């Protein structure tokens, strides 16, 4: 089975990325042949600083290893190192409609926030579809916010297959049972995000332990005092999900344990559990990030493996679309 997922290097990585993304990557790498891609080409679709992008790419590589990816088992690489990604995006644009792209909620949200809307922001999901399809991917572990993009990738694959002959496996999205959408601690009806969320409500993976504790202590809770999951209690529901993931306890057990003992002790315990979850990751991250030459060496190995794995698909795409090829 082939597994693929991608993550943007820009923006500080946060608890939502860990729970919806990284945690699943480390688990799924055991199930088959896995590819994890630092999607640096996606990161240029909104305003960014080139020097920052360079550093953040190495930061993210170290974080991927610190959260459990094993570069000898999985292929971990940067998107820009494999030129087939940019090529696939252009080829797939022939079977993607303007109307479909305009319906993407992430595009609508992000374009509302800014004055300069790059054309790359609009065609972003086509590049993402290419990332996935190039590896004949069976499953894509992602958070719930990427569901619409994944559905579009499936549509694109089907349209290409029916227009040009069978070329791609049609991938399936895999979402975590708990924590597919971690919410902002201050505005629990919005997803946690370092680009769109509130600074106090976003727990960064590299926040100092005391900063993390404080963010949980001041998390917005809902009316009443009962610790239970409910539609009208988005704040408490989010904290139960986080505690469940951090400790491995089921939500029911958490509800039974805290009952109506009030929100104060509950919030303190969620903070402590998250500190215990991220402290070892932070330590491993610092160690790995201290050796940039080794990170570059590993990135080069990943690029080579990803090039070899994607080459047959990009060739098939060109060939099935009617381009003249020299090989074969
Ligand atoms: P990105 O970089 O925003 O996020 C990386 C992963 O983290 C998940 N995630 C969350 N999960 C739960 N709660 C949250 N608040 C939260 N915020 C982020 C995301 O769902 C994602 O799994 N477009 C993608 C990157 C991408 C990609 C791909 C993903 C490019 N090509 C191909 C999969 C396959 C993105 O911007 O993710």
Shape annotation:
globular
Strand content: 5-15%
The total number of structural domains is 2
From the N-terminal CA to the C-terminal CA, the straight-line distance is 27 Å
Task: Trace the largest sheet across and list its strands.
Answer: 1-2-3
- At the fourth level of CATH, the homologous superfamily of the largest domain is HUPs
Q: Specify the CATH architecture of the largest domain.
A: 3-Layer(aba) Sandwich
Give Rg in angstroms. Answer: 21 Å
Provide the helix percentage: 40-55%
Q: Biggest sheet, open or closed, and with what strands and sense?
A: 3 strands, parallel
How many alpha or pi helices?
A: 12
Poorly predicted segments? none
Average pLDDT rating: 95
CATH class membership of the largest domain: Alpha Beta
Which structural class do the helices and strands define? mainly alpha
The CATH topology of the largest domain comes to: Rossmann fold
Q: What string gives the helices and strands in order?
A: EHEHEHHHHEHEHHHHH
Which molecules are bound besides the chains?
A: tryptophanyl-5'AMP
Strand runs, count: 5
């Amino acid at each position: 089975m082939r597994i693929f997922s991608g993550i943007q290097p820009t923006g500080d990585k946060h608890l939502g990325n860990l729970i919806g993304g990284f945690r699943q990557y480390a688990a799924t790498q055991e199930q088959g042949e896995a590819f994890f891609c630092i999607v640096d080409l996606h990161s240029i679709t909104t305003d960014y600083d080139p020097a920052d992008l360079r550093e953040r790419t190495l930061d993210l590589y170290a974080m991927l290893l610190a959260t459990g990816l094993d570069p000898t088992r999985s292929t971990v690489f940067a998107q820009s190192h494999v030129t087939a990604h940019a090529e696939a995006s252009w080829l797939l644009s022939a079977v993607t409609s303007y109307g479909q792209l305009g319906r993407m909620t992430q595009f609508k949200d992000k374009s509302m926030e800014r004055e300069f809307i790059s054309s790359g922001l609009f065609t972003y999901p086509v590049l993402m579809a290419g990332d996935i399809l190039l590896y004949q991917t069976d499953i894509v572990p992602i958070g719930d916010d990427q569901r619409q993009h994944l559905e579009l990738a499936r549509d694109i694959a089907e349209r290409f297959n029916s227009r040009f002959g069978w070329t791609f496996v049609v991938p399936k999205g895999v979402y975590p049972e708990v924590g597919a959408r971690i919410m902002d601690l201050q505005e629990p009806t919005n997803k946690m995000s370092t680009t769109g969320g509130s600074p106090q409500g976003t727990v960064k993976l590299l926040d100092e332990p005391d900063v993390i504790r404080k963010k949980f202590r001041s998390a917005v809770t809902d009316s009443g005092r009962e610790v239970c999951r409910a539609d009208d209690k988005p704040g408490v529901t989010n904290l139960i999900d986080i505690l469940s993931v951090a400790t491995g306890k089921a939500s029911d057990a958490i509800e039974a344990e805290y009952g109506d003992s009030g929100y104060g002790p509950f919030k303190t315990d969620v903070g402590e559990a998250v500190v215990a979850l991220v402290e070892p990751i932070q330590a491993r991250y610092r160690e790995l990030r201290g050796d940039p030459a080794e990170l570059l060496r590993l990135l080069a190995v990943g690029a080579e493996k990803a090039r070899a794995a994607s080459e047959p698909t990009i060739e098939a795409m060109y060939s099935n679309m009617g381009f003249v090829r020299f090989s074969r």
